[in-house]
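Hi W.,

Here's what went into the run:
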Amino acid sequence: MILKKSVYRTLKEKKFQYAGVAVLLLLAVMLYVSLSMAITTLESRNETFSKDYKQESFHFVAGEDVADEKLSVWEDEYNVTLEKREYADFQVEDSTLRVFTTTESVNIPYIAEGRAPTSDQELAISKVYAEKHQYELGDAITLDDREFEITGFVYLPDYIYMVEQMTDLLADAEKFGVAVVSGSSFSVNGQTEILGWTENGDVPDGFRESVSEETALLQFVNSEDNPRIGFVETEIEGAKGMTTTLPLFILALSIAMVLMLMKRRMEMQRKEIGTLMALGYRKKELVRHYLGYAWFIGLGGTVGGLTAGAGLSVPLSNLYANYFNLPALSMFDWDPFVLVIGFVIPLLLLILLTTFVISRTLRTEPLTLLRPKEMSNGKKSWLEKLPLLQKGGFIRRFRLRLLVRNKARSFYIFIGVMFSTVLLLFGLITFNSMDQLVETTYKEILKYDYAVHYQSLMTEETEDEQSPFTMNELGVVDEDVKITAYGMEKDNEFIQLSAEGESLQSDFSEGAIISAPLAAVLGVGEGDEINLKNSLNSDTMQLEVAAVADLYIGNNLYLPREELNGFLGFPDEAYTGTWQKQSPENSENVYMVEDKQKAIDSFESTTGATRASVAGMAVFAVLIGVIVLTLLTNLIVEENSPSISLFKVMGYHDKEVSKLVLSVYTPIVLIAYFVSIPLASLSLQQTMNTLVQETGFLMPTDVAWWMVVIGFIVILLTYWLSLGLSKRKLKNVSLQEALKKQQD
Amino acid sequence: MAIFANQVNKTYQSGEVTVQALRQASLEVPDKKIVTILGPSGSGKSTLLNVIGGIDRYDSGSIKVGDTVLDQLKDRQLTDYRRKFVGFIFQQYNLIPTLTVEENVEVGRELSQQPLHMKDTLEKVGMWDKKDKFPSQLSGGEQQRVAIARALIKNPQILLCDEPTGALDEETGKNILKLLKFVNEQYGTTVLIITHNQGIGEMAHSVIRMKSGEIVDSYENENPVHPEKVTWS
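Here's what came out:
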């Protein structure tokens, strides 16, 4: 159809408008494709790796050695595969390298490059750790004066999220890594853990009880409670929400913009449409013609988005690869269906909705289209008849009427600004949360430097610089929630539980003090009751929540030590660990040491990445804001060009005309911004609450005054930038052209 | 192609007011003739042209163009009727500004199964040398020539012209009239011209006068004058 040429030329003439909206669509598709490709890659690698390399269903640490014969008995009795694995931690420069013996049945190491260690002088280390410490294959690494040659890069199915302690929040390969040696070469005094694998991934009924009858159970961890295994799934679930929500919103913005542009185009060309209909063009031919615009935007946006998304998924997957130790077991780990969805859905939605808008205009009789618009529709809406719009000077009334007459535009600006603000504040709140989380949790509440966990129950008197505590994992009656219960000294100086700066230490007399994540998971607050369950003997205890502390990590519950000991059946003076300032001396009885500084360092080492992601979010928010606002204000100038021209003819200056026509939307921008602030906080809080059960931490989502100010400045600058761009268009409105349009 | 209208009525709403645009309008336009409909603004002449052209509907009465009775035609059938038989020429030309002269004419050509030759048509309206110009680069007269070519290239049986010279000066207007006469003679196209310019009636084979939606007078011109000689008013 020759009319196609008209589409090409209009697109060329209005390239800014159509390219802008295509970029919006491109951003939506790019985000979806890149995130989805990275996530499906992660998901596929995780599934394959955990299945093919027999990821543990659980592991446990026994108080004393369990004989191999006993393991065989349990294997037969509970239809489970059990295997012992030894490990020891070594200090390498400023980091800890955890070295494991190679297993054959459970948590089988995968050697990605090089080969598995075979002799006493060889080991394989995790690739990300090697990269951070510039180790290459063939290099030597010294562990406790013994030199090992690196023969390969290894991935362990139970160290996908490579954290040193299970309570650690963030993985940091600069501080911690894993390695494997051949079984025979492991002569150091290490820990032994027993790994278990079942076909369905569950712990067999009664198994845990059998083990605890046989030996003191120092630790028993299901794979679902193991962050090194489970966190990747949490990340996948969390990111899956992001992969659809954010792109869908941008997609909605871009489709709404296309529809507005189409409606505007059809309005502008109503006479042309009427003429074509009078000449004998069929509606479906005209629909096809006008759909050319949607096809251009749709194909440009989706193809561009797919390309950019596929490109972006590479660094994103690499980022994930640094974060999660998952090997690439096949060439194509990502789901090709992502590309199909990323292409088909936006295009289909765009074409269907545009067809609807075009068809609506084409329902009008050709004669009506051939007449000037004013003649066919000269009525005022009820809003325009409001007394408010009748009062005041001309400028005020004109501006208000413009707002009222363009309700859809006002709404679009409102939504666009809201979206940008929420995105911007999300970034700022997250950024602040990280700092606040470290500040409150690690500096104000957890005052110890080391938490030392012992292999057996201790009863001896502790030293002056130590505070004893009892730690045990408890369940909640009728809930699938695991609680880390701490029995502590009321007057200890190492844990200063507080909320909003107020000490809660005196609240112990009224019941238990719980962490913010636990309160969110259980949906309880001060004064509510919790029914605790001892998973070993099924004893229960009802406790009142005395307070919720500003402690954002872990499903923790704090009680007086005697009370917890009583519930667990321990002697009153017993404890399982100590909080202390000094570094613990090497002792056989020490089972695990939590180094608070390491946790803080780990947090701070990720600040750079957080800053980058916040900056990325801010740039994204501004970009979307600028596109949305500029497209809209541009459209407004175009739509009002006859009035603009008339104002110019009458002697109004460009600045005054701009105030009359463009700045009309300032109140909408301001209202949208201030409405978005509580919305951003609430939606982030909601997101955090839904994720808290899997992540075990809760980010504070308070909006600080400085965020409001920064957000305000950014949004205002974005708005001014858009106005600036549109003012250039306003200045270019030719008097003759605009007046001619009015005559037509 | 002959046109017959029999007691056609048409009313429409203009705000609160009901306007009777056509009252019992009956006419007969013989095949291959030029007919001019004269009358002041609001006399119903445009409405009559529009219902004959199938871009507006009438309330009662009957219209027959060639063998096609328009009374009960559905939207799609009316479109086909316009596509096959009708060429429209408007006072404001209504060209597509983003298409060149040739492309604007192509818009009409695409609709026809037996279109005229592009070069011949553009040469006949004197626009071949300007075929690559855009409407904004043309004068009003030239734009109307392109509009005529667009209507003509379809090889329509009837050409409906709504004030084709209304926006033009005398010289240009007369040139357009010459072109319409040429089309009528060369292709045997029935030409219906509505105008408030009384002089244009002098070149038509017959003249119809309208007032307040009624046909008040109609007569045949035994000796139609050459367009050059019409009295311009």
